[in-house]
């Protein structure tokens, strides 16, 4: 490994081709980080190296694969090792949610969700931990959700997965502090990224729309606060207010309000076909 390669700082972002992940890639590139971007579909990644190299003069490598496949995490690690670079930042961002009755989604849909939101995050972190320990300073950021704080009828499996993300991140943070690795968890509410979240934002109440932000806004806050070594990153004042309210409002009332909101008859059920699952 040449000295020039060792001096470069690299960040790996899962789900780096779209939405919050793509905007976090922009934020890191602005700060001079070179990027390793992983996503499901290769076509969404192909133009990114040239775009980023021209705009920010940083190096970008891309890998398209399904992180829920059995050997995907090993494949990511082998791809990384072949490059001969060192990782400073790991961002476990790839994930997805849904809206609707538990019995309106298939078992394979829920398995995919749990494998991506939970298992891929833990496995990638475990795979890269020794490399991160080898750095003077390193960062891990896992993407949770406002659902990390609330139980959420009609989003039950998603909310449970994001509670796992939150708890895992906060516990691991304490373990990794002696190694100069800062672990953060990002907990956004609605972010206007894909067609599902844009549709849902139109269909939900004005109160839900208050906590809806653009991916650019969320990514800028996320990267700033991650580099400041914040444990929990809540983008937006309204989000902070909503999260604080859970300690004040009666639990039954909150569940009633959420049920009414998320079980509206005219709400669209998410189309999971893009994720390659029924
Ligand atoms: N949007 C929101 O309202 C919101 C709110 C709170 C938390 N979050 C969380 O924020 C994170 C990012 O969400 P987003 O809305 O920005 O996502 P998004 O715009 O839908 O993009 C998802 C990214 O993940 C990749 N991906 C999906 N399935 C994958 C798989 N099986 N293997 C590898 N990569 C995969 C996608 O690749 P392709 O583009 O190639 O498909 C894409 O790059 C998620 O963890 C989500 O739960 C989102």
What topology does this entry show?
Elements: H1 3-7, E1 10-14, H2 19-30, E2 34-39, H3 48-56, E3 60-64, H4 72-83, E4 87-92, H5 107-133, E5 138-143, H6 156-176, E6 181-186, E7 190-191, H7 195-203, H8 206-210, E8 212-213, H9 215-227, E9 232-233, H10 237-245, H11 251-262
Parallel strand pairs: 1-2, 1-4, 2-3, 4-5, 5-6, 6-9, 7-8
Helix pairs in contact: 2-9, 4-5, 5-6
Bound molecules: NADP nicotinamide-adenine-dinucleotide phosphate.
NADP nicotinamide-adenine-dinucleotide phosphate is lined by residues 14-15, 17-21, 39-41, 44, 66-68, 93-97, 116, 143, 145, 188, 190-191, 193-194, 197, 215, 275.
Walkthrough of the structure:
This protein has 278 residues and is α/β, with parallel strands linked by helices. It has one domain (3-275): 3-Layer(aba) Sandwich (Rossmann fold), CATH 3.40.50. The protein is 48% helix and 14% strand. It has a seven-stranded parallel beta sheet with strand order 3-2-1-4-5-6-9, with helices on both faces. Strand 4, helix 5 and strand 5 form a beta-alpha-beta unit. Helix 5 (107-133) packs parallel to helix 6. 37% of the residues are buried. The mean pLDDT is 92. NADP nicotinamide-adenine-dinucleotide phosphate (NAP) is lined by residues 14-15, 17-21, 39-41, 44, 66-68, 93-97, 116, 143, 145, 188, 190-191, 193-194, 197, 215, 275.
Keywords summarizing the entry:
binds NADP nicotinamide-adenine-dinucleotide phosphate, Rossmann fold, 278 residues, 7-stranded parallel beta sheet, alpha/beta, two-stranded parallel ribbon
């Amino acid at each position: 490994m040449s000295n020039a390669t060792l001096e470069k700082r690299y960040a790996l972002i899962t789900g780096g081709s779209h939405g919050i992940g793509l905007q976090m890639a922009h934020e890191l590139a602005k700060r001079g980080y070179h990027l390793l971007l992983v996503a499901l579909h290769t076509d969404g990644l192909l133009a990114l190296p040239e775009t980023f190299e021209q705009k920010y003069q940083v190096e970008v490598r891309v890998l398209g694969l399904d992180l829920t496949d059995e050997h995907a995490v090993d494949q990511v690690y082998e791809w990384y090792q072949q490059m001969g670079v060192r990782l400073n930042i790991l961002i476990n961002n790839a994930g997805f949610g849904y809206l609707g009755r538990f019995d309106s989604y298939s078992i394979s849909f829920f398995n995919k969700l749990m494998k991506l939101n939970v298992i891929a995050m833990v496995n990638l972190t475990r795979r890269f931990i020794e490399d991160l320990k080898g750095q003077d300073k390193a960062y891990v950021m896992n993407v949770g959700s406002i659902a990390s704080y609330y139980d959420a009828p009609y989003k039950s499996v998603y909310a449970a997965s994001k509670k796992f993300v939150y708890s895992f991140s906060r516990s691991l943070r304490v373990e990794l502090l002696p190694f100069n690795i800062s672990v953060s968890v990002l907990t956004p509410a609605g972010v206007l990224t894909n067609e599902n979240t844009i549709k849902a934002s139109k269909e939900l109440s004005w109160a839900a729309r208050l906590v809806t932000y653009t991916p650019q806004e969320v990514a800028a806050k996320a990267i700033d606060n991650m580099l400041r070594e914040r444990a929990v990153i809540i983008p937006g004042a309204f989000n902070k207010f909503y999260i604080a309210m859970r300690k004040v409002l009666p639990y039954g009332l909150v569940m009633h309000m959420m049920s009414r909101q998320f079980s509206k008859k005219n709400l669209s059920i998410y189309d999971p076909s893009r994720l390659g699952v029924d």
